[in-house]
Amino acid sequence: MASQSAKILVAAIDFGTTYSGYAFSFKHDFEQDACKISSHNWPAASRGLVSLKTPTSILLNPQEEFDCFGYDAEDRYTALANEDLHKNWFYFRRFKMMLHGSLGIKRDVKVKTFDGQKELPAMKIFSVAIKYLKDHLMETLNKRNTGVRRDDIQWVLTVPAIWNDPAKQFMREAAEEAGIDDLIISLEPEAASLFCKYMPIEKGTDDFKTFQPGNKYIVLDCGGGTVDITVHQVQQDKTLKELFKASGGAWGGTQVDEAFKQLIIKIVGSPVYLNFCEKNAADFVDMFREFELKKRGFSGEGNKQITIKIPVSLQETFEEDTGETIQEVLGQTSLSGKLKWAGDKLRINSFCFPHFLTKQQPT
């Protein structure tokens, strides 16, 4: 194994709650331009878009063997569900937060599948996901004919700053099981802070400059699962000093998704919602894909309605189970006038939408 000083490339894996990806930088590039970093563009064929990250979703076949990851896993599972062939498959998504706040994490702890019907050891799911990202990165390097070998790489795996030591150790062991030995565990906001140190973001006399000694700044890392807050100061030797201990909580974007889910349950009722999820897995995935796009695109400006496409199967399930229509029920609740459900569309007044961000339901 090469010494750390002999490494010619740093490869970092960002294993997120909702999205994951990787980036890498060659030593000679870093010495000339610290911000020269390469990453991968992940195509989502079903949505016609390209992203620097891919969903933290993983699909295993009925034999508990790896099948696919990311957008591919979402699309494959949706296709299986459309044909009602998904029930023996193992589909996991957004499982990272099970490590948050755990005082002691047993190595045999298990994580439930997306449908809640099956479970597998968490260590296996985490390690298989990390292995996929590691192997994909190595494949990218090989396609570029870089000549980089595994021993030439210094691996970095980022974790939330507010995680405790057992959670960090769990991730380290998962990475080792994935075939990564020479590993640095980096706190997510600290990695972001180091990058900020090299960014030309201060206006000088003639151009933009990087942070100078004495400058203090806050890094607010708003992720899918957690929000981390750190405060750093640039020292005279250009190193960074942490002025306050990292703080934060489980306040990430998934909390907004949970608020939307609770709104749907408030409208249709928990029994109908669970019945819909069990019988229409593909539609469930599509509904939250749609909400994700609306959530990202919401600016808070103007007074227009937010329109979210809702699967017709949810309305059909409601009518079959209750003998009523959603429109009739909405008209009798405090949500009347704030929400409008017409066909396959849910329209929400823009002044109600921010309630999702605070996990408070419109009343």
Descriptors:
single chain, alpha+beta, three-stranded antiparallel β-sheet, about 35% helix
3D architecture notes:
Helices cover 35% and strands 27% of the residues. It has 363 residues and is α+β, with helices and mostly antiparallel strands. Strands 1, 2, 3, 6, 12 and 13 form a six-stranded mixed sheet that branches. The chain starts with 8 loop residues before the first strand and ends in a 6-residue tail after the last helix.
How are the elements arranged and paired?
Layout: E1 9-15, E2 19-26, H1 27-32, E3 38-39, E4 42-44, E5 49-51, E6 54-55, E7 57-60, E8 66-69, H2 71-82, E9 90-93, E10 110-112, E11 119-121, H3 122-143, E12 153-159, H4 165-177, E13 183-187, H5 188-198, E14 202-203, E15 208-209, E16 216-222, E17 227-234, E18 240-249, H6 253-268, H7 270-279, H8 281-297, E19 305-309, H9 312-322, H10 326-331, E20 339-342, E21 345-349, H11 354-357
Parallel strand pairs: 1-12, 12-13
Antiparallel strand pairs: 1-2, 2-3, 2-6, 4-5, 7-8, 7-9, 10-11, 14-15, 16-17, 17-18, 19-21, 20-21
GO molecular function, one term: ATP-dependent protein folding chaperone
Keywords: ATP-binding, Nucleotide-binding
InterPro entries: ATPase_NBD (IPR043129), Hsp_70_fam (IPR013126)
